[in-house]
Design brief:
The complex is a heterodimer. By secondary structure, chain A is mostly helical. Chain A contains seven helices and no strands. In chain A, 64% of the residues lie in helices and 0% in strands. Chain A starts with a helix and ends in a 13-residue tail after the last helix. Classes of the chains: A mainly alpha, B alpha+beta.
């Protein structure tokens, strides 16, 4: 049991980071992580030691996050639309850089499934197969979500005027 | 990215931007991008998006984890919660058990069963009131009836003789069989003996066998203007009922109990006689 708790502890910083990026609200994010750890401890028996603990924890976190979204949507709440917590630390005018505030807002506009997939890969540095496993989707679906997420971000950050990829093959 | 079938497609560009390729594959993509500026610009843009996301959120992982997110602390809280729940359940169980026991223990205080002696005294007083008024049928069998006392003794399964109260001025005039009362609620038989003095005052004895507890009990009660002197021991149970002063009844009682007990204690065989 102590070993199990220690292993969870190692994953907590990553879980916090991912939850923060998903919710963009530090308190809600930590609440999610706390729920996630509680659930993991209670359902310890359900965890198959053959699979990686980290992926299992992220699955739990995602389920909690999606439930929360569902509940919020049913209540008609706006989930943190205007809680921009990260001010642009890089001048927006700086050439070649995307304003952080802009991309933060853009991430918010993404479909939840695209945001989940993009952040697992980019922020958590998961391999495509790991991310597909956590999300429970085939690799092809993951790739198309990534593609759509990135296209949407370009659109939202006004970067579409940059040269488009015409034919890739 | 399968090494054998590696070709530069959109997925490969994503993989390149996400740093998921082998060195060899990386080199291949870089060569491709050198020749395709459009693709290079797109990939560069993705990389800038990636950088922006990391700049914004990666530092969170370096922040100090709040104590409430420590798995050990959470586990402790869950255990404490479970213990508390167990304690609550145990407490409820204890309270219910104690309340039940207390209720059972106190049942006598709220629902006290009338002691057998009271029932016997009631019966004795009722029978006395009923039969002392009778002129010609005061008794079922007169004092001189053959085997009267043997019959009554047999019926109440206790050897009795009619006490001699001549010294107190009372003459035995006869007896009858009456319903008695047992501790298990059954109505066993009781013997009533009646005496009369010169002034035509009557007294009755209401006699049954010993009670189950065989305890010696003396009790005097005034009921409806008559005195009832109850007495129980391991040999016999008797209530004297008379409209006499308490002192007189006590004196009579002493005589009666002496004689009754002596007979009941003697080795007596109801079958043989």
């Amino acid at each position: 049991m102590q070993e199990f708790l220690d292993e969870i502890e190692l994953c907590v910083p990553a879980l916090r980071r991912y939850a923060r990026a998903l919710t963009r609200n530090p308190d809600r994010a930590d609440d999610l992580v706390q729920d996630c750890i509680e659930r993991a401890i209670r359902k310890q028996a359900l965890w198959k030691p053959t699979g990686p603990l980290k992926a299992w924890l992220f699955r739990i976190l995602l389920n909690l996050y999606r439930n929360e979204l569902r509940v919020a949507r049913r209540r008609g709440e706006h989930v943190a639309v205007d809680t921009l917590l990260v001010e642009p630390s890089v001048a927006p005018t700086q050439p070649g850089r995307i304003a952080l505030a802009e991309i933060a807002r853009a991430i918010e506009t993404l479909a939840a499934e695209q945001r989940e997939a993009l952040l697992l890969v980019v922020l958590e540095g998961m391999s495509y197969s790991e991310a597909a496993d956590v999300l429970g989707i085939p690799m092809g679906t993951l790739m198309s979500r990534l593609g759509r997420a990135r296209a949407a971000l370009r659109l939202a950050t006004g970067a579409v005027d940059e040269p488009r990829l015409r034919t890739v093959k | 990215m399968n090494r054998a079938a590696f070709e530069i497609d959109t997925d490969a560009l994503h993989a390149y931007a996400d740093g998921q390729l082998t060195a060899e594959q990386n080199a291949a993509v870089e060569a491709y991008l050198a020749e395709h500026p459009d693709a290079a610009a797109l990939v560069a843009q993705w990389q800038r998006q990636n950088d922006a996301m990391r700049v914004m959120f990666a530092p969170v992982a370096g922040e100090a984890v709040p104590p409430r997110l420590s798995p050990h602390a959470i586990d402790g809280r869950l255990r404490a919660g479970r213990m508390q729940m167990l304690r609550n359940v145990a407490a409820v169980f204890l309270v219910v058990t104690m309340a039940g026991s207390l209720g059972w223990y106190l049942r006598g205080a709220f629902w006290q069963e009338e002691p057998v002696s009271e029932r016997l005294i009631d019966n004795a007083v009722l029978a006395h009131a009923l039969y002392v008024k009778e002129k010609s049928h005061a008794v079922e069998a007169a004092a001189d009836s053959p085997n009267l006392m043997r019959w009554l003794s047999n019926r109440i399964a206790t050897p009795i003789d009619a006490p001699n109260l001549a010294d107190q001025g009372f003459t035995f005039i006869g007896g009858r069989l009456l319903p008695g009362y047992n501790e298990d609620g059954a109505h066993g038989p009781a013997a009533q003996l009646m005496y009369e003095n010169a002034a035509a005052e009557r007294l009755t004895l209401y006699i049954t066998g010993p009670l189950d507890d065989k305890k010696e009990v003396w009790k005097f009660e005034n009921r409806d203007g008559v005195g009832a002197y109850y007495w129980a021991n391991d040999a016999v149970t008797c209530t004297i009922v008379a409209s006499l002063p308490e002192n007189d009844v006590h004196l009579l009682g002493k005589k009666i109990f002496e004689q009754l007990t002596r007979k009941a204690d003697s080795s007596w065989n109801p079958m043989g006689g």
